[in-house]
Amino acid sequence: MANVVIIGAGIVGCALAARLAENGVKVTLIDQAEVVAGASGANLSLVLWSDAEPGVSLTMTRRAWDELPAEVADLEARTGLDLEFRRIHTLSLVLEGMDPRAALAGGAHLTEAGFQTELIDPAAVHALEPAVDLGGVQAAVYQEQAAINPFYFTLAWADRARVAGASIVTGRRVTGFRMDGERIVGLETAGSGEPVGGDLYVLAAGAWTRALALTAGIDLPEYHIIGEACVTEALPPLLHGLVGEAGDNRVPFELELAARGGDGSDLRLAEFAAIQTMSGNLVVGQVSHGGPGSGPDGRQGNRPAVRPGALRDLATGLVQRLPAARSASVIRAWAKPVPFTPDHQPIIGRVASRPNLFIASGLKSALIITPLLSKLIVEAVIDGDLGSLRPFSPGRFPQGGFEELRPGG
Ligand SMILES: Cc1cc2nc3c(=O)[nH]c(=O)nc-3n(C[C@H](O)[C@H](O)[C@H](O)COP(=O)(O)OP(=O)(O)OC[C@H]3O[C@@H](n4cnc5c(N)ncnc54)[C@H](O)[C@@H]3O)c2cc1C
């Protein structure tokens, strides 16, 4: 593979650009905004294994987790950046009326994969997080998870890509593909600049992937939610790890959204979670909804806005659970789309009817898996075989769930 164009400079696109360029491939990475402008710069910084789906995702997550410290050390050594990688516990609080077993979401399959999960009593919750006031509740605790600075993590991959010779083009929005029969022969972009073209096109545009694939006549069953979060000014140490609420409402929420073809600005899911950065800022998330325009045509605004009510919900949640943060100022709030697929697995691989289009998207959480996933994708691109990524192939979706549109349709 001589010449690869990657669309989307989030963590996935940047890691792919670095690894491909290091393998001697000529790489152009293009983004409508700048590096780390999408969900990769809008998340809660969590390197979580507790989210992994049973099966191949979990096996891969286990491997990714085991390899991560060495990957981070390597990235830090190459770039000179401190990625603020640290082990933390995460607590899922069992609030009144919740089934404590539900808090240990997927506990059995995680334990089988060698991860430690346990339910702890209110005294133990208090010992772990003394500043959290919940009037005595149990919690599921995951002792050994991690956090990382998501900006530095993504920027480090971009830096590594540049050093390896990749060209990074920012501020250039891809509006479509130029086709010759089934093959893509170039990109249509907004604004001026040199034409961008290559032998292979990798769509790593996160939640925007579906809209872009549509312009190549491909309808991927990939939807998105818009997650809203905020960050406070720096405060003295209050939290040691992540404090969140237990609950299993996300899957039904996403399934409802998918059943509606992605259209659900009236659907809302509040999942409280708070973590303190190494600089002392509290990052608080997240209220999610189906975005306006997240409907069947897959299009959406490039900059979804934070709804006024979301900020109030986030602040109320924070003050209820962490009274010491009562007078903290919120310095920034944001809303960014996160993709998901009906089976909660990413979409990785070539599209049969578009031989030089490769999809690398659909990651609802990416920080833990990207170093490994990018390695496997690069092997797949170079060898022309998906190997262990085959379960994530776009071809897995049944007729009707993944349609090729008529050319120009
Ligand atoms: C509030 C919130 C909390 C989260 N918490 C976590 C967490 O704690 N841990 C975790 O692992 N994950 C978390 N996630 C999810 C995680 O951020 C995403 O899974 C991850 O960032 C996806 O990376 P990506 O590279 O696929 O996409 P993105 O980072 O979204 O990158 C896509 C890029 O494509 C570019 N693009 C889009 N359209 C075009 C176009 N037409 N032309 C050119 N460029 C284009 C965009 O500008 C963007 O830079 C969270 C997300 C949110 C919003």
Layout of secondary structure:
Elements: E1 3-7, H1 11-22, E2 26-30, E3 46-47, H2 56-79, E4 86-94, H3 100-103, H4 107-112, E5 118-120, H5 122-128, E6 138-147, H6 150-163, E7 167-169, E8 174-180, E9 183-189, E10 200-203, H7 209-215, E11 218-219, E12 223-234, E13 242-245, H8 250-259, E14 268-276, E15 281-289, H9 308-321, E16 330-340, E17 347-351, E18 354-361, H10 370-383, E19 403-404
Parallel strand pairs: 1-2, 1-10, 2-7, 4-13, 10-18
Antiparallel strand pairs: 3-6, 4-6, 5-6, 8-9, 11-19, 12-15, 12-16, 13-14, 14-15, 17-18
In the CATH classification, which architecture of the largest domain applies? 3-Layer(bba) Sandwich
Q: How much helix, percentage-wise, in residues?
A: 25-40%
User: By CATH's scheme, which homologous superfamily of the largest domain applies?
Assistant: FAD/NAD(P)-binding domain
Question: Which shape, going by the Cα principal axes?
Answer: globular
- Termini separation comes to 30 Å
The set of bound ligands, ions and cofactors reads: flavin-adenine dinucleotide
- Taking all Cα atoms into account, the compactness measure Rg is 21 Å
- Tally the helices: 10
